[in-house]
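Hi P.,

Sorry for the delay on this. The queue was packed all week, but I finally got your sequence through. Input first:
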Amino acid sequence: MDMQQQIEMQQKNSITCKVRDLQQAVSVLLENKILDSMITHNQMTIIIDADDLEEVMLKLRDDSSTKFEQCVDLCGVDYSAYHNDYTGSRFAVVYHLLSYTHNWRLRVRTFAKDDQFPIVKSVTHVWNSLNWFEREAFDFFGIMFEGHPDLRRILTDYGFIGHPFRKDFPIYGHMEMRYDEEQKRVIYQPVTIEPREITPRVIREDGYSGRN
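Then the structure:
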């Protein structure tokens, strides 16, 4: 084993030990609040109940054993087409936490209990950086964040209908926008594009594009 390989092995072992330390600290801190946990690619993920979200996040931020000062990202997930045998809740919210003190990263996932009206508590009061992230998840997935100070669309247009990152959202949308010369303003109207299935041409027929 050359010097470079030794350095890489030491770094890998150091990361593995750090993740194990994180796993121990989180397990002790949260006790029975963790529904499931996993470690993939040297990053730990925990799944918690939506009812425990606020309590868990405050503990992860404030307890000296974890000290996650920052939530660097939040995203929604639609599991409606995840696997054919999947029977869990449809919508989840995933939080990516960072501890400057311990140099740790942790992924926290929670599921909205109502598929028809997905709602979880806002944690903008825990990390104010989540304000726009929660608005984005609402805009794209229709996930409501209870207690958010200003929950409204952030990336789609004001007249937009539906939530474009949902698996059942039509690829052409519901409405289109155009400028009307007679009214001298922008108007909304139903989509005029006819839906069609686009199938990639994988097998080239003989004579395709004029070639034999």
